[in-house]
Every structure is written in structure tokens, then in C-alpha cells.
Amino acid sequence: MYTLEELESIVSKCNRCDLHRGRKNAVFGEGNPNAKIMFIGEGPGYNEDQKGRPFVGRAGKLFDKMLEAIEVRRESVYIANIVKCRPPNNRNPIEMESKTCIEYLRWQVKIIDPDILVCLGAIAAKNIIDSDFKITASRGKWIKKGKFHIIATYHPAALLRDENKKKYAWEDFKSIRDRYMEIVQMSGKDD
Ligand code: URA
Question: What residue stretches are annotated with the Uracil-DNA glycosylase-like domain (predicted)?
Fold first, then answer.
């Protein structure tokens, strides 16, 4: 078993796929190493690649606002992506890239051991829930896989492109808040 620090160091030197060629920084993920909830996006964009941190660009600002709206502190959750290096021109990761990189995410999940996984967008949902996942049809529905409570909602970047999706994302975030509060209360520990 690795520690998060060891894994981050491995990821920072990873050259298992071609995405490493274009990166300024690998974006490992960040947050509470004991988080009960993990948010999983697709992959770094320009700003994330520059800073080496997830969700710090325009979509990240919206994500922060949504967390604030459900009264969850960004520092109390863990945020990661399916791929750790930025795909050129923000294209979707190809299958080989996601399949290779998701091994790091699996390790992160093993180490952090959260109860809830939130897939932000179709790419995360296809990689985590089901390769045929349809975000419009199946967002907002909880599924249980082993110990994990898993839900998918729209990617914040999709909400920036289409305001009409925001009301659905808000419903999903309220549902996420309710499940998260239940789990925090049941565990009897502070988040
Ligand atoms: N979009 C993602 O999917 N992940 C990030 O970290 C930033 C934008």
C-alpha cells in the first residue's frame, strides 16, 4: 500500500501515456486525506495544468460555489480526476489514457477510503459507473457498488455552457448534501 505522498510522487513522474509530453504539471488531486466524499472530474484543463491543482479554472470556481451552497468546505472533501495530465486542447481523454491512469485513482480511493463518490460529468461516470452511462438520463441516481454510494451529476463546465442544466445539478447537489450529512452523522466523527 502506498501513501498519498508516495503515489503523488509516482504520478508526477509518470510517462505511461503520451499525455505526459504536454504537461506542465500532473494534477494529482487534493483535499482531506480522510474525506468521506470524493469528487471526480475528467482531467486537468489549462489552469489546472499551470497550477498543478484540480478545479481551479472557471469550472472550478463554479464547483466551489456549488460546494458553498450545500455548506460543504472544499478542504473537507477530496477532489481528483480520471486522468492526471491535461489532454491537448482539452479534448476528452481517449480510452487508453483513462484506462491507464485510472489505476492511480483506484489507489487514491483505496487510501482515502471515502463512502461517497461523485462523478462530475459523463467521462467520470463512464469510467466509474458504466461505460454506457448517459449523463442526462441517469444523473442524480444513487447506486451502491460495494461500500460506495455513487452518483453522477453534470460537469460544472457543462453548466457554464448550458444554464438550463443548473437546476438539475442543484437537485443533485442537494441529494449529495443529504447523503453526505447522513454518513457524517452516522460515523459520529467530525468531517
Ligand atoms: N475539469 C475537470 O474535469 N477537472 C479539473 O480538474 C478541471 C476541470
Answer: 28-174
Q: How far apart are CA 31 and CA 124, in angstroms?
A: 18
Q: Which atom of ligand 1 is nearest to the CA of 121?
A: 3
For a substitution probing ligand 1, which of 55, 66, 155 has the most ligand atoms within 8 Å of its CB? Answer: 55
| Superfamily for the 4-187 domain | Uracil-DNA glycosylase-like domain (3.40.470.10)
Per-residue pLDDT tens digits for 50-106: 999 999 999 999 999 999 999 999 999 999 999 999 999 999 999 999 999 999 999
Residues 6+ apart with CB under 8 A from 161: none
Distance 25 CA to ligand 1 centre (A): 14
